[in-house]
Amino acid sequence: MTAEGKVDMTRSQVFGEVAELYDAARPGYSDELVTEVLAYAALGGRAALEIGAGTGKATLPFAGRGVPLLCVEPDARMAEVLRRNTARHPGVQVQVGPFEELCPDDRRFGLVLAATSWHWVDPARRWGLVHGALAPGGAVALFWNPQGVRDAGLHAALAEVDRRHGLAGTPHSVRASDFGEVPGNWGGLPGGWPEAECRSDGRFTDLRSVRFRQDRHYDTESYLGYLASLTTYRVLPPDRRERVLADTARVLDAHGGVATERFSDLFLARAR
Known about the structure:
The protein is α/β, with parallel strands linked by helices. It has eleven helices and eight strands.
């Protein structure tokens, strides 16, 4: 998203350059989160619509629970991996294109979900588009999975690498201890937590925010793969990206990898 609050579509589609790496390196979402969403949505056989499905990190756990899904993905390269990953789930359909251009005919959905993709949707139109896609009483579920570094010394060493290379908003820029108890209270969330925006829209009710936690340890190779799949690193010139990752690798090797606490922050609302 730009400083003017507009979606930068070039940045939003850099993931397709490394779709296979993205699929291998990006973390998924917890079973507890999926259970919470489905309990709230009470689909009763109705289909769900997923915005910016990527390679299926959120798609698969919902499809595995028997949820029929229409997955909208703007990048054809990501959609190709998504189709492969969901081939065993006949209830999953994939449509290539931005959510803003979706034409679902007369279909209305019991659930619209966006997993770390809501900030790529046009802020001026997204609530209206979601409301129009939902059946009366249908649910919207927006979620992200930030993380914090547990070791203060490692955090400081990684912060120095970021400072030296002029990077901001990396996934290791926040210590785990800096996260409070309130979902969405982390500084790197693009566009901010959606609750205030949703409330001011007025077409939704029963707003809820939920946080789940889990520990994760990365070795150097897996963490570098994760970083290389992120927009912050993808938009760097290749030679600069290689230098940043090499410096990061030296720090990680010296600390035996990185122990993190991962937070799954979930926002729920229901269409009036």
